[in-house]
Amino acid sequence: MAADAGVALPCRVPYRIDISCPPHDALDQLVQLGALDIEPVNEGLAAIIPDGVTPDAVAGALRVASVAVSPAVARDNGSVWLLSPRAVRIGSVLIAPPEVAAPPGALRLTDSSAFGTGHHPTTALCIEAIEEALTIAVPGSVLDVGTGSGVLALTALMMGVPRAVGLDIDGDALKIAAEHARLNNLAERLQLVLGEPDVVGGAWPLVVANVLAAPLIEMAPVIVRRVGSRGRLILSGIPWSVESEVRQTYQRLGMRHIHSDTRAGWTVLVAQASW
Which of 63, 170, 268, 275 is packed most tightly, with the most Cβ within 10 A? Predict the structure, then answer.
């Protein structure tokens, strides 16, 4: 559909616009409007525009009569907006869709409904924390709580961890994680289990959980029981404003805080078992 200048569409989420003959300063104007993503398309431009900017405002800024408007595709549960899947590098890890050219050793993830494309700050923070932990010592196994697409468990396996267990309460996510494990020839080293951390026994030298702050607090006692002696715990999905609440919850359960890092309003918390 097309939106004429002067006609505001009631957008509740970011939306896509296409411009067939953009002015020479279109890129600068779209950046100033807060475009979430911009790509050249044929002889024109496509962009994802925040819901707070109306199509008539875009048309006015670009000095055109109208812009073509269509729904944008949300990724990572609606938290990441990209025009098309693309590769992303996080530390030493390159994550790429199967259809995108990438060197050998790239982690291939399909464009799916499961969280964990590599583009969300929490995923990047977790991968960086895993890579940092592995420079100290490579554990024999890792437990990934809320595995989603499997990105964190698969990253750990690609970095040299021999085995991983991925937990999720979403059966569809586990099917996608299994597909990704097969795609990357890692299926024999990844075990996928439906449920929360109480459905497995034992303890792991490295536990990662990229979920949300409320579940992290609720599951804290059982997550801590899954951390082995002197084991490391990586938690994310935490808005920076509640990092102290999550940190104190785990400190009361015996986890020693190592450090926290924040990016784009999201925090990763790294801790170590005191036992």
Answer: 268
Alpha-carbon distance 121 to 238, whole Å? 11
Quote the pTM value.
Answer: 0.89
| Predicted pLDDT of residue 4 | 37
Write out the H or E segment, with its range, that includes residue 17: strand 15-19
Residue with structure tokens 């795609």? 183
Strand, helix or coil for residue 244 = helix
Phi, psi of 217 (to 5 degrees): -70, -45
The pLDDT mean for the chain works out to 94
- The residue to which tokens 């896509």 are assigned: 16
Which whole-number Å values give the CA distances from 190 to 147, 164, 167, in the listed order?
Answer: 11, 5, 11
Cα–Cα nearest to 120, from 154, 156, 145, 95: 95
Residues in the chain: 275
Sign of the C-alpha dihedral computed for residues 190, 90, 108 and 84 taken in this order: positive
The string over 22-38, giving b where at least 16 C-beta atoms fall within 10 Å of a residue's C-beta and e elsewhere, is: beeebeebbeebebbbb
Burial of 191 (0-12, 13-18, 19+ CB in 10 A): middle
* Contact between 12 and 78 (Cβ < 8 Å): no
pLDDT at residue 43 in the model: 87
For the cut 70, the answer to whether the pLDDT of residue 7 exceeds it is no
The token duo for 220 is 């804290």
Total Cβ atoms within 10 A of residue 66: 18
State the residue for tokens 């992290």.
216
